[in-house]
């Protein structure tokens, strides 16, 4: 015990420790020879209904974007027994589409989204955390637990759930199964050369610049007279040499030409039809929460119910920022840690 106290900066015995009662139990639990649970082994309070036994809280994190990574790692560090699901089984979420990330403190300015995802994966792996390729289909919450169903009808019971499953694209009436229309940059065919990108927001502008950077040709069709993207990204888009940027342009028709797609565009000068290898539609996104029967919580609120939290883009209901999602994940883990302490 003396070694434990020295490592924590205490000179005297346990009785000299000043602070909340749970900290004293934490020190006892981490003494040499005492078995630990996952993470740091933080205990429920000795006077709770568990009678002082080590009972790690089981928490399911659904989603492996930046917010899901932050929540899973922090919950593990705080002593929870973490289950981690993601419908793709791959860490990163929409961040994998990003050409350049400039607003992540501590990360090299302009690092690609793909590189950020590698770092997130390595960070989670350092704690022994890897997302399972599982999609949550429904859930049922009682007063003491949450049952979550996966494909095939198999259910699992946990003490709490963090929903970090992000968003889905707004459906586009022009898209049909036989047409090469895509909603995420990473899904564009590598063999494509000339791509029509529809939209004027951050995803559309970043996608156009990304495609140009990869050596392709991009036509950016913006329905309004200005970009919705702002700041540096808008400036880069407006100043990018070779980018075919068209304002007041609306797609009014798409037809297959055998290998690609012919798009009919309505412009101020009239309608024109042009061939493209593929179309990237960036017309907005919406939270996946309604798929599970939820509604988006009030602004700034992470807690959906006594035992469920929502973070990141799923909470915002739109395309957000990686750092906002990670902050949500840390805050949700902190709130859930109160259940770990007091049961």
List the defining traits of the structure above.
FAD/NAD(P)-binding domain; 25% helix; elongated; 343 residues; 8 helices; 6-stranded mixed β-sheet; disordered N terminus; 2 domains; alpha/beta; 5-stranded parallel β-sheet
Please give a structural write-up.
25% of the residues lie in helices and 24% in strands. With 343 residues, the chain is α/β, with parallel strands linked by helices. A six-stranded mixed sheet has the order 3-2-1-7-19-18, with helices on one face. Strands 9-16-10-11-12 form a five-stranded parallel sheet, with helices on one face. A hairpin with a 2-residue loop joins β14 and β15. The longest helix is centred in the C-terminal third of the chain and has 21 residues.
Number of helices: 8
| Total beta strands | 19
How is the biggest beta sheet arranged? Answer: 6 strands, mixed
Q: Specify the helix fraction band.
A: 25-40%
- The CATH architecture of the largest domain can be given as 3-Layer(bba) Sandwich
Q: Structural class given helices, strands, pairing?
A: alpha/beta
The CATH class of the largest domain? Alpha Beta
Q: Which strand order does the major sheet show?
A: 3-2-1-7-19-18
Q: What's the order of the H and E elements?
A: HHEHEHEEEEEEEEHEHEEEEEEEEHH
Q: Name the shape in a single word.
A: elongated
Radius of gyration: 24 Å
By CATH, the superfamily of the largest domain comes out as: FAD/NAD(P)-binding domain
Share of residues in strands: 15-25%
* First and last CA, distance: 26 Å
Q: Any idea how many domains?
A: 2
CATH topology of the largest domain: FAD/NAD(P)-binding domain
Mean pLDDT: 84
List low-confidence stretches: 1-50
